[in-house]
Specification:
- By secondary structure, the protein is α/β, with parallel strands linked by helices.
- It has helices at residues 9-19, 34-42, 59-73, 83-99, 126-129, 155-166, 180-184, 207-219, 234-247, 273-279, 332-344, 352-379, 387-397, 434-445, 457-462, 465-474, 490-499, 504-507, 539-554, and strands at 24-27, 52-55, 77-81, 104-110, 146-148, 174-179, 223-227, 251-253, 282-286, 304-309, 326-329, 403-407, 423-424, 451-456, 480-485, 532-536, 559-564.
- Helix 3 (59-73) crosses helix 14 (434-445), helix 8 crosses helix 11 and helix 9 (234-247) packs parallel to helix 11 (332-344).
Length: 568
């Protein structure tokens, strides 16, 4: 007869993740994972709610998967990496999560604390080399909370605290280090086994603030809503659409990171914000960190400004001048609902100015539609392929509820979108490599939806394509990857032209540090993982190639299109 092994802290850690609703842990293991591996093996097949551990052989992809997963289904995932070195690889993804308010529990092993005295004490030379004086210091700038689990502590309580902080507004990542000896030791349990919804509910804005905002809107001749990410909450999309329609408030999106409003909504003015902001006598900044670039313009001097956000002061940004006459803090969805209720009771909220705004919006939408049509007609035969034509062709072949990820890929302005959580755009943090892993996370969260990720050629390389395609194959996550290949770092080139429009670099035949030539055969990388790859050099071949690729994806085979595109 053998002794029943004690319940390890690793067992309790994994169990608590499952009890709190964590369904996936995207993991890249190391020597610190021994108790985790033992626990997974020991408890395999048991009737126990535990998360599924997915092997992701690069931390950047793992972080992006957690990011895309949350953006698609609204539920957090966990990532687990190897001590300091794995944390270092995850930092770029951590920056992206921090600036995009993504709740991720990033857990990292900690090199064994002891040289002797435990079965998990140091037994390899790297266990000295990988120790840091302050491992959490590597990430403290970009997490809401960090902690190292101590011996004798109830790991369930630590997990609860991590997830509650991550899921409280403004949401964001947290970091937990797990020493190997502590994971291997006997578990200590929480005093009270309480499982509740994660995080603190976002409070409704103060009623007085909503009433003040409603009066300002009612008095305005041309109020304007500016947003970039209100669509993070699908319910807020509905509330925004109702408010804008009922009271004729135009909506413009600037650097939109989410699907925020149906493309066909009558008050949707699109994505060219500066001219509309300059016209408005009241600007309502709604979940938007950078509504305008001060150096390039902004609202009129006599315009009033309302800022509505879970965090209107942007407390985790080192510096941002908050131009606002009224700050409204709290749940933005509740704010929109409250504004509609208040405006309904105000005399004059629906006046002659609202009729004029409807006419202005209708005319602007028709003009935008005509410009888009003229542009497509102009560029449809051009080679290399224009990004607007690439988006036009995607519109023709994608499913209505397809999820589009764009990291320096196709512009949202050229896409036809009508479904919540159907778009993930470029991130404010600018940490490249997000687009590939995010597509896998989206597909994992919504296997019934098509996922199309469009990335620049540089973004594709940053995204760790081989681990990306590996996970797509191993987890049966069939996505379409479109590489908008312009053979350069377009953002670097454009920023140089912005600063030195008449400089020597602008006149050079080859601008230094911007060329990505000779280009690899990107389409062949997916083939090493059983996928379908194709290169497109002619606009005439684009639509058929998209159809072939989506046919493959719909049958379960990941596909990559390497599309030769024009410079932006």
């Amino acid at each position: 007869m053998t002794d029943t092994p004690h319940e390890m802290t690793a067992d309790a850690y994994i169990a608590r993740l499952g009890e709190r609703g964590i369904e996936y842990v995207f993991a890249n293991a190391g020597t610190d994972f021994a108790p985790i591996v033992e626990s997974l093996s020991r408890n395999a097949g048991k009737d126990q709610k535990v998360p599924r551990f997915v092997t992701v052989p690069h931390e950047n992809v793992a972080m992006a998967m957690a990011h895309g997963y949350y953006r698609t289904c609204g539920k957090p995932a966990a990532v687990m990496v190897h001590v300091t070195v794995g944390t270092a690889n995850a930092v770029c993804g951590l920056m992206n999560a921090a600036r995009d308010n993504i709740p991720v529990l990033l857990a990292a092993g900690r090199t064994p604390l002891t040289e002797t005295g435990s079965i998990a004490s140091r037994n390899r030379s790297i266990h000295w080399g990988q120790e840091a004086f302050d491992q959490g210091g590597m990430v403290r700038e970009f997490v809401k909370w960090d902690y190292e689990l101590r011996a004798g502590q109830p790991v369930g309580a630590v997990v609860d605290r991590a997830l509650d902080i991550a899921m409280s507004e403004p949401r964001g990542p947290v970091y937990l280090t797990l020493p190997r000896e502590v994971l291997a030791a006997e578990a200590t349990h929480v005093r009270r086994d309480t499982v509740r919804p994660m995080g603190v509910a976002n409070p409704e804005p103060a009623r007085r603030s909503i009433e003040d905002a409603a009066h300002m809107i009612a008095k305005a001749q041309f109020p304007l809503i500016v947003t970039s990410s209100i669509g993070r909450d699908p319910a807020a999309i509905t509330e925004l659409a109702k408010l804008a329609e009922e009271f004729a408030i135009p909506v413009v999106q600037t650097e939109a990171r989410d699907y925020n409003m149906p493309s066909d909504h009558p008050m949707n003015l699109g994505f060219e914000a500066p001219a509309w902001i300059a016209k408005a006598d009241l600007v309502i900044v709604l979940e938007c960190v950078v509504p305008w670039i001060p150096k390039s313009g902004g609202p009129r001097r006599d315009a009033k400004i309302i800022n509505i956000s879970s965090d209107p002061l942007l407390a985790r940004y080192p510096f941002k001048e908050i131009e606002a006459d009224l700050l409204v803090a709290g749940d933005p969805c509740a704010a929109l609902r409250g504004l509609r209720e208040c405006l309904s009771g105000l005399a004059g909220a629906k006046n002659g100015a609202s009729a004029s705004r409807r006419q202005t919006a209708a005319a602007a939408r028709e003009e935008t539609k005509a410009r888009r049509k003229a542009l497509i007609e102009k560029v449809k035969d051009q080679n290399p392929i224009h990004l607007a034509y690439l988006a036009h062709c995607i519109n023709q072949v994608k499913a209505e509820n397809a999820i589009i990820v764009s990291e320096l890929g196709v512009p949202q302005a050229a896409l036809e979108l009508t479904q919540p959580r159907s778009f993930m755009g470029g991130l404010l943090s600018g940490g490249l490599g997000f687009g590939l892993g995010a597509a896998l996370g989206a597909k994992l969260a919504a296997p019934e939806r098509e996922v199309i990720t469009t990335v620049g050629d540089g973004s594709y390389m940053f995204g760790n394509p081989l681990p990306y395609h590996y996970v797509g194959r191993s987890e049966n996550l069939s996505t379409l990857t479109i590489i908008a290949n312009n053979l350069m770092w377009g953002a670097v080139r454009q920023s140089t032209l912005d600063v030195y429009p008449d400089g020597r670099a602008a006149k050079a035949n080859i601008m230094p540090l911007t060329e990505l030539r000779p280009a690899p055969d990107y389409e062949k990388v997916v083939e090493t993982c059983g996928g379908r790859g194709e290169k497109v050099t002619s606009a005439a071949d684009l639509l058929p190639a998209l159809e072939r690729s989506l046919d493959a994806v719909r049958s379960g085979t990941p596909a990559t299109l390497n599309v030769m595109t024009q410079a932006r």
